[in-house]
């Protein structure tokens, strides 16, 4: 799904993490924490477990923005799109992993769709052109999205070898490194340092600033 490039992983080769919960710390090149990074662990010695249905997820439209900005799900998960604004929205995606559109739907209404193919899906609104969000669809069940402190916690990880991969909207390409998860190892966070593109994301105009209704 995501292309692999040599990463700036701040751990030595063969770094071992404790089975159960794997913690990953993501920062930029200056050491500042990076939010909205999707971290995933893909087993190298066995196929990921068979798919089990996950509860539906939700990406709302509120204050003329998508919330959350980045959502990570397993392939086969349903995502609901409730309109909690006071205006209509027209949500769409042209991404290869999932092309769809929800034509104009009114406040209080909700649409939903199943994301069945792995990949990165970029969301937009044809009425409010600053609105953008991302859905990262994965085959593996072991993933998380970093919070404002740059930390992600992936639970229930069995011992074994994994490809630890990080994707973020401001990365040119995802970065990855092989890690080993073993019983009884130290539980220090696995650290990634990312070289990010400038944040050019547009925000919703303030009320009265002439933005679209």
Strand order of the largest sheet: 2-18-17-4-15
Largest sheet: 5 strands, mixed
Strand content: over 45%
Q: What's the overall average pLDDT, rounded?
A: 87
Whole-number tally of structural domains? 2
SSE string, helix = H, strand = E? EEEEEEEEEEEEEEEEEEE
Low-confidence stretches: 1-15
What structural class is derived from the secondary structure elements? mainly beta
CATH superfamily of the largest domain: Immunoglobulins
Distance between the termini: 37 Å
Radius of gyration: 18 Å
What portion of residues is helical?
A: under 10%
CATH architecture of the largest domain, by name, is Sandwich
CATH topology of the largest domain: Immunoglobulin-like
Structural commentary:
The chain is mainly beta. It folds into two domains: 8-48 and 142-194, Sandwich (Immunoglobulin-like); 57-138, Cupredoxins -  blue copper proteins (Immunoglobulin-like, Sandwich), CATH 2.60.40.420. It is built from no helices and 19 strands. It has strands at residues 8-9, 16-18, 20-28, 38-43, 57-58, 60-62, 65-67, 70-74, 77-82, 89-95, 98-105, 110-115, 119-125, 132-138, 143-145, 151-157, 160-167, 175-182, 190-194. The strands form five sheets. Strands 2-18-17-4-15 form a five-stranded mixed sheet, with no helix packed on it. The model is unreliable at 1-15 (pLDDT under 50).
